[in-house]
Amino acid sequence: MRIIIDAMGGDKAPYEILLGVRDAICSCDAEFTLVGNSGDIRRIAVDTGLDTDRCVIVDTPSVITMDDDPITAFKRKRDSSMMVGLGLLADGKGDAFVSAGNTGALFTGATFIVKRAHGVSRAAIGTVLPSTEPCLLMDAGANITVSAEYLEQFAVMGSAYMRKMYGIQAPTVGLLNNGTEDGKGTPLQVEANSRLKACSAIKYVGNVEGSAALFGACNVLVTDGFTGNIFLKTVEGTGKRLLRSLKSVYGKNIFTRLSALMIRKQLAKMKKSFDPSEHGGSPILGISKPVIKAHGSSDAKAIKNAVLEAIRYAQSNVTGDISEAVEDISVSKLL
Amino acid sequence: MRIIIDAMGGDKAPYEILLGVRDAICSCDAEFTLVGNSGDIRRIAVDTGLDTDRCVIVDTPSVITMDDDPITAFKRKRDSSMMVGLGLLADGKGDAFVSAGNTGALFTGATFIVKRAHGVSRAAIGTVLPSTEPCLLMDAGANITVSAEYLEQFAVMGSAYMRKMYGIQAPTVGLLNNGTEDGKGTPLQVEANSRLKACSAIKYVGNVEGSAALFGACNVLVTDGFTGNIFLKTVEGTGKRLLRSLKSVYGKNIFTRLSALMIRKQLAKMKKSFDPSEHGGSPILGISKPVIKAHGSSDAKAIKNAVLEAIRYAQSNVTGDISEAVEDISVSKLL
Fold it and tell me: How far is CA A220 from the centre of its chain?
């Protein structure tokens, strides 16, 4: 097993990325290909004690920044750590690729360099939610406008992922909507709801409201990338807002500070369950090989989790399952 | 000042509605028109000590339920407490109408019975968010599909409301979007962003992400009703999810329970700031007279707050300001 790492992608690259790889090396027996500025990588490896015996370093001259336009970056920065890394994955020089860099560029590069799995119309970013039950948001922000057909494929791909990665035999699928009744939503949701109801490859439970999504309403929450982004960032923002309110409550006086000390551990655990870095990276489902997007603000811990997720993902052969499942629904529509 | 009340609307009607009116009567000098089943109203008035000297009771035979289809309810249940109440407002038999009933039916009835203010293309529901700064979400769920022109009017109407009701001289306006850069979003957001930028009647600050909306990014958060509903319910759901996690943290053992006791008051205050019932009702902006939608699950406290909000709203003449502001932008486009 060889994991290819974009050493230059993310707000805290390359230092925290390499620190994350160093920590992951101790927890697995995979080998690594580190793509980026080789001078930086070697220097940080020495500083942090990263074991380079299990690493190949591939030197690349340019970096895609967070502000780069995805399409322009894909076209003009083919010598960047991200695009070179994706090329190595496409050429079979590794089993999975992890990047914390520009989401749009990674999605575009994965689609055009590694390519979509056979039969997949659009890949999508799957993100695990801080829900009471395992729940994957599909799409978390890649496809701003979609068709009902794409949403059906997102449902099938998300189900394959949850089956293999979470061991859920029949993952439930819900459509994010502004009410639970049939007929709710824009024409897109109305059509998607009918289509998902008729899809025998999944266990569809119907429309799911934003208020129910974190309480175990479904294992795969299907939506377009625009709404998915609004949903995900609202969860993050509301969580942050509440935890800050809580912090100011605890900071009030000596009694409240004492009170905080008493539940320190439990609070840390709760905070952890709302922390995206704890869930590892987000897979780009529908790409022919495993590509994992780590959060842009990833620190070493987040990268380590994303790397371990990438290993499990590559071992699971979810990409093969997805291809098969998507072809099955296409065939069943022809019959 | 006379406030018309839909005594039969909402999950806890009529009992909690009338209890709320009883409590509001003690805090204001307005008079009330209670619309609904007069037998029920009189009985509950006796039970709760509601002062009927300041109330007129209007008997109505039917009730619009939460499950009724809005258009059908509007057409077939003209003798319901909600539609009769709206008719009284339209006929000048009161200064504001408050209902905790079916949102879609209330919106439809307000639009066709009380009618839109001159120049307004679509009314919208404005909901105050649990943000660090006063922030009104426009539209919170009434218009599932909108045009960029509607969004511009929502911005102008929301600004007029925040100016009068919150004393903010130049309320900032943001567009809910999946990124802050120009060009983000679906074609609708791209067009609306250009339009809002060019609108001299408002103080536009650009696109606002879901994660920033609760941290004072703007005073008026503009969006279509579909996205607004997803946003609002996600805030509610995430808040509930975190507060429940916190509750289970506190219930763990004797130390954690002791810790909870020590910050009891502060926690209650924090919970209150995330409680929609504390913010009173949501105005339907763009209707020619004040119509206030209280939360469907409103208890007495929520109804009392919605009634007091309705009084302030009627006294403020925001409806007049909105009419003027909307006409101003139409005229400025012609010149």
Answer: 13
